[in-house]
Amino acid sequence: MDGFDSFITFTDDFSRYGYIYPIRDRSQALDKFKVFKAKVENQLNAKIKVVQLDDRGGEYYGRHAPYGKIPGPFAKFLSKNGIVAQYSMPGEPQQNGVAERRNRT
């Protein structure tokens, strides 16, 4: 598949419309989200306000240190753009039901 061995999906919770982007590794998550954000906000003429994310994977969340959370680039981008990040609990995919259902089909 031209060097791509994985993909990332984004699903609009209201319309259930899905977007899929091939990725080479998880470090591309932010770049693909920026493409998705620009496309959706242009199409709908509305800003993304909340993003429901899979568990606190490093590509989304950053990392934990003894003195607290160290946000990664994805979390920093969301914060800078006024987007609230809601994280599902690890091992609880049903909290991300719409996206998880899409990924199963």
From TrEMBL:
Domain Integrase catalytic: 1-105
Single Gene Ontology MF annotation: nucleic acid binding
InterPro entries reported for this sequence: Integrase_cat-core, Retrotran_Ty1/copia-like, RNaseH-like_sf, RNaseH_sf
Gene Ontology terms: biological process: DNA integration
Positions in coiled-coil regions: none
PANTHER family named among the record's database cross-references: TRANSPOSASE, PUTATIVE-RELATED, TRANSPOSON-ENCODED PROTEIN WITH RIBONUCLEASE H-LIKE AND RETROVIRUS ZINC FINGER-LIKE DOMAINS
Entry protein name: Integrase catalytic domain-containing protein
